[in-house]
Specification:
single chain, 257 residues, alpha/beta, Rossmann fold, 2 domains, 4-stranded parallel β-sheet, 8 strands, MaiA/AMDase, Iso_Racemase_Enz_sf, Asp/Glu/hydantoin racemase
Length: 257
């Protein structure tokens, strides 16, 4: 069996990644490499240096930036394209803004299906029939409250919103957080009323902790890196039947059911 994908027949999922993100490619590639499937990730980047709601930060997320990036991914014949970032959760918009962004990306990409981490997270919660959640993030108090407001506005019940004691800056430093610190924040978000914990940052490497913490806490954990790939796999029609996806948590296991 070859250790490399068959590029003649491989299906390709395109991801638009913040330029200061150092977690998405490594973790997404690791998950795909563990599957018995001929699927490869294709990445392109947009300039994102800061995460915030100030004018400079907001200007990084202009729709034109995403449509241009989506067009680049069409050159590699991707079957689906996703924005791998959580800006839709903290920019003060509702879900319709991300739906409009996905449509604009798809239009620019010649009709290729497009989505975002925000849309994927809501889709996962609906897929799992979960409305009661808590949030674990590495963000500032202001951004944490924005994420809380977003999910509350989409009629989810947010029972806790837990953040790190100090938000790493600049954005690339978030990926350097030790796993024990990430785990501590997630465990604090495990309140009795919640049925799922949302780990909402694609530069915070929580994916490798998901399966163990789900077993320990008896809660579903939806982390942003994992859920974006999960949605991409669904978009290209991946059927995980017969695969052992338990190492990536309950959400991925649902692909094999």
């Amino acid at each position: 069996m070859s250790l490399t994908p068959d590029l003649r027949t491989a299906k390709k999922i395109g991801f638009i990644v913040p330029s200061s993100n150092v977690a998405v490619e490594a973790i997404t590639s690791a998950i795909l490499a563990s599957l018995n499937a001929n699927i490869i990730p294709i990445f392109t980047r947009i300039r994102v240096l800061t995460v915030g709601t100030d004018a400079t930060s907001r200007s990084q997320f202009s729709p034109d930036v995403f449509t241009s990036a989506a067009q680049l991914l069409t050159d590699a014949e991707c079957s689906a394209i996703l924005w791998n970032g959580t800006s839709g959760m903290f920019m003060g918009h509702d879900l319709e803004a991300d739906r409009a962004l996905a449509k604009a990306m798809s239009d620019a990409a010649g009709g290729i299906p497009c989505s975002t981490t925000t849309l994927a997270t809501v889709a996962a919660l609906e897929h799992l029939s979960i409305r009661d959640v808590s949030i674990a993030v590495p963000y500032t108090p202001e951004l944490t409250e924005k994420v809380n407001q977003f999910f509350s506005g989409e009629e989810f019940k947010v029972h806790a919103a837990v953040r790190m004691g100090k938000t790493p800056a600049p954005n690339r430093e978030i990926a350097k957080c030790p796993e024990d610190e990430i785990e501590s924040v997630i465990r604090k978000a495990a309140v009795p009323e919640a049925k799922a914990i949302l780990v909402t940052c694609t530069n915070w490497p929580a994916t490798g902790l998901v399966q163990r913490l789900e077993d320990d806490l008896d809660l579903t954990i939806v982390d942003s890196i994992g859920v974006t790939l999960w949605e991409g796999l669904r978009m290209i029609g991946y059927n995980g039947k017969g695969e052992d996806l338990r190492q990536w948590g309950r959400l991925f296991t649902s692909l094999a059911q």
